[in-house]
């Protein structure tokens, strides 16, 4: 019912829908993946690496598959003197002072979220001028549909008077802005909300504040904390660096879109003596390189756990495996909160419903680059292991249930994106209509858009089956829409 109401509103389109030039010109992470229909492991060109620390323990020619496309090749024989960036100096410093290599996960975490030099910390990396584009940036319909999901869950929760609406890693804040704008007519819903943005980047926090049209209430002398209100729906908004900092005690609706893929992964390689962790070291010529750990590492505990959840046949065929302890721990935190406070979480990301082998990739300015090349200047991300999320959540409590994953195309389709696009098309210019159609295709289509008449290199590529949606809810709420 709510769904239909919302869809019928032919509200004015976002100010406005990416113009068709920009929307079709930029690749998304999933589009880059989708250049092949196979799983990430089978897409990876292999790179031989040198492991001088442990050479004698490995058969010669041991190779590690690294997921990096040759879409970008640095010029050969370039011996230009380059000075290390602050982040490179920092990483080399850690390796030097620790007296040995660091895990791929530690490397990834420093590269993305180092508080001074991290990729996400100081700049806007999204969209045209940035490095990649995400679904909320592709079309306003994405945030609106997530809003429909949130309202349906709120209905199933019995329309609580107060709810924490939490978004993990909100980027520019576009998803939340579209959600609030789309939901603003449903006063009883929006009046119940307190929005919590979990964001590690102070620069992105400011951008989110701006995009949510927030204003900071004047300090009053009663010692009551100053509130920030989004004018999009009159809801209070707060920012936090961690989910744990969001106050508990209220039912929560948690959204994580393209958040899990940014969490650091450990990579393991099967060697003659068993699984060895892949590490990042500095070679004699001062370049980063991969080596294998000679001893078991602490992350091996998570590897063992992950292996227990997998079928032996699944493991036997793998020469490499990625494990994401932060994803497991975050899922436990989410499941814990939902089991105590009620509510649910929606996770949308690209990934697999099973063990991920070798998916870590680096993207700079919409192109694949080497993971170790000029760290901090490219996004690093990895496929999300949805099966591991399911197991992590189910371990926490018998009060929660996990649903999906289903494809983004099924998810958005079942929530009524077709009706929404039709409604928006009733009330827009030709240019906006083109943009809506390409945006719609990108969100729910598969492969190249059949209707495209523009330049080949700009053909919109659907990410409807590459992205998956999963929900974790308190069992009191029943099965969430549209997972029934
Ligand atoms: N959800 C957004 C942005 C995805 S990019 C979208 O779909 O457009 C990942 C986001 O998570 C960025 O906002 C980044 O700054 C944030 N982020 C990454 N790692 C984080 C961490 N460990 N803690 C908090 N935020 C993080």
What can you tell me about this protein's structure?
Residues 35-44 have a biased composition (Low complexity). Keywords: Methyltransferase, Mitochondrion, Transferase, Transit peptide. Residues 35-85 are annotated as: Disordered. The protein has 484 residues and is an alpha+beta fold. It has a domain at 135-262 and 325-367 and 374-477: Rossmann fold (3-Layer(aba) Sandwich), CATH 3.40.50. It has helices at 2-8, 20-25, 29-33, 40-43, 86-98, 104-113, 135-138, 140-156, 174-183, 187-190, 202-211, 300-309, 312-316, 325-341, 386-396, 408-415, 417-425, 430-444, and strands spanning 46-48, 63-65, 102-103, 163-168, 193-198, 214-216, 228-230, 235-240, 252-257, 266-271, 274-282, 288-292, 320-323, 343-352, 361-364, 367-369, 379-381, 384-385, 400-407, 446-448, 461-463, 467-474. Helix 8 packs across helix 9. The longest helix has 17 residues, at 140-156. The radius of gyration is 23 Å and the shape is globular. Residues 1-13, 15-27 and 30-81 have low confidence and may be disordered. S-adenosyl-L-homocysteine is lined by residues 112-113, 120, 126, 134, 136-137, 169-171, 175, 198-201, 204, 257-259, 262.
